[in-house]
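Preliminary data (for renewal application), pyridoxal-5'-phosphate complex.
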Amino acid sequence: MNSEEFIPLSRPYITDQDERAVLDAIKSSQLSLGERTSAFEQKFASLVGAEYAVAVNSGTSALHLGIKALGISKDDEVVVSPFSFIASVNCVLYESANPVFVDIEEQTLGLDPNLVYQVISDKTRAILPTHVFGQSCQMKDLCELAKGHQLSILADSCEAISAKHHGKEVLEYADLATFGFYPNKQMTTGEGGMLVTNNLQMYQMAKSLRNQGRGDDMNWLVHDRLGYNYRISEITAALGCSQVDQMPEIHLRRQKLAAYYMSAFLEIDEIQLPRVPDYNEHSWFVFAIRVSETIRDVLLQKLNQKGIQSKAYFYPCIHLQPFYRERFGFKEGQFPVAERVSKETIVLPFFTSMTERQVDIVKTRLIESLNEIRKGY
Ligand SMILES: *Cc1c(COP(=O)(O)O)cnc(C)c1O
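Predicted structure:
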């Protein structure tokens, strides 16, 4: 394999501006809880149309604080999707609450509102929908459902920064939303996350919990509640500020790249392209295609051998993860749509600096692989 032709699945988009911002932060004397953290929160809040934002050290921490801010505790039920990253369900278990899985629908690959309706009980406290691969799930319907049953919504938007649903930002439909800045995300801080809300009480609670349960204007050694250290450093915040500033450009570049991918891949018979219903503006976390489950593994193997880094995603579903099977006794067949999508989905290289030439290479290698599979080798 020619090493020049290796195309990674993802690659962080780091510019000179980012480098300068990080260097300035290191040189300043304030390395935690300083002005860069508040600036990052303010910039991020305004990017996603939120009143308040709390910066934390991971998307998972943001989810946990979201669950805590809603006051969810032992024996409460939270409706979750089996087709997501494991953190979106683990956060429910952190508080000894019970995740109630509901199957997904094919348009957005998010929770199916018609099925959510059927599992609501007097223990249900919240719905935790995941926005998969960069687009919103059926938030309008879920929001109506939640209002009708006095449920809260914590949206896992970790993959969907800048996505819109019926032209609106995520908090139009949710009480809280989380974002993640791991290096494969649209914007990155290395590690990092953000919890956003328009609710002042929830904001204050999350802020206190992030910082060891301290009150806002309290003494450093006075702790009001059981808290955590989910803080970020000023170095992380500096990178965050700089990345947020570039988000409009990043968003545009990814949209253009996705459009190029879509047109280049249109005529390949064996694959299904991502669906983007007209009520959604996609923010393109990954480029996910679907193939017959009978060829998925061999196709992945061939692509990776040809230098096209690609992966099954999310596979297996959360309820079929070893820990979940063992703890809850889940079996295959309980959430058929999620399980089928999980067995058919492949994510291909997709990153902000990816060129059209690289998409063409992915296409050539994909067609070669499919031809080889058809011929039986
Ligand atoms: C990335 C991601 C998270 C958060 O991940 P961290 O690694 O904790 O930042 C949460 N949910 C989903 C769906 C994600 O893709």
